[in-house]
Please model this.
Amino acid sequence: MSSSTAPSPSHDDHDEDREKGAPDPCAGPARDLWTVDEHLADVLASVTPLEPIELQLLDAQGCVLVEDVTVPVALPPFDNSSMDGYAVRVADVAGATEEFPAVLTVIGDVAAGADGLPEVGPGQAARIMTGAPLPPGAEAVVPVEWTDGGTGGGAATGMSAASTSPGGAAGEVRVHRAAEARAHVRARGSDVRAGELALAAGTVLGPPQIGLLAAIGHGTVRVRPRPRVVVISTGSELVQPGEPLGPGRIHDSNSFALAAAARDAGALAYRVGAVADDAESLRSAIEDQLIRADLLVTTGGVSVGAYDVVKEALTADGEVDFRKLAMQPGKPQGFGAIGAERIPLLALPGNPVSSYVSFELFVRPAIRALMGMEDLHRPRVRAVLDADGPLRSPAGRRQFLRGVYDRETGAVTPVGGAGSHLIAALAHADCLIVVPEETESVDPGAELEVVLLG
Model:
């Protein structure tokens, strides 16, 4: 059985237990043990950002801008009203009160998008809507609530619809309060002025940035695209979710979890159904996927078992280096570049916790490096251990335990055990608790580094 998601003792666990066992027959002359940081540095040194492309705005969401964007025209491009009300001259409403209102002649409506604006003269007002251009002659806007709305009664609560009451654009309006010059007027260029920097290269485009680009007239933008990540799980025992389980079979969960994790990191993820424990089938599946991959991720088959086909399929040509890391879970790892285009491939262990932890530590930073992100890693904080007893950790290994972090108290509580098959505990965790290599026991109340996953 390959190192997939089986809840029984895994190849990953077996590999971690055979420190002094027989040498791995697939292993080359490579060093015995790599640190987590060394392996990560090796991965990132081999990953370069994707070439920029021009994308439609919505397609560019989540991507990194590769060039500065300047403002072609001022925003807003004209003086406009920030309220529904009346455009007036300041002198005409000076001293206005509810007892002695200013009575003005309404000369028409100014709606958003209007042109051919009426000119407001002495003793006149134009009914104006939010976002509509300030008509010539007007110096301020009085909200409709400061007026009688043209009804001749008390304070208005709103305007009647132009379609049902066209007479509202004529007649008289009583204004109950004075207004200062430029009151309730958004000045041209008050948001950004023409020639100013709108967004700098390196900006990650979220909804507000997309909105700004649209507001200044950009229909497309030049960015580094989302990397296409292909996830392949291996194991003859794997059955697709929704299908019945036969003897010795389990549902394939890794490919779903890792494809979802790739999307969460910003990639376009493609999940390939489980490949059986056959080296030729795996080589064929990988070859088929190279055409649509910027990064390949396999899960399972990287340990020392007789059916660990990823190692068997990819060791012979020397393109992928399989190594052991000083970490738990996730000791067996593979990394290299395959095909004519030298597509990066990360081969992860098959137990669900091992594969997910490995993804967070190595694949997620690689995806973000392909996108041209500056911040490649999950945020880390220091937290106080809240546990019933000491945490044990193997000497010389950096251990990653699942936990729940309380942001209010700054405490972290372990969930589940250390087993690399405990997927239910992983589903309830929101962080990884990091126990350093030199630490074999951590008492409650001690401070540890925590990797925040949410």
About this structure: The chain has nine helices and 28 strands. The first strand starts at residue 53 and ends at 56.
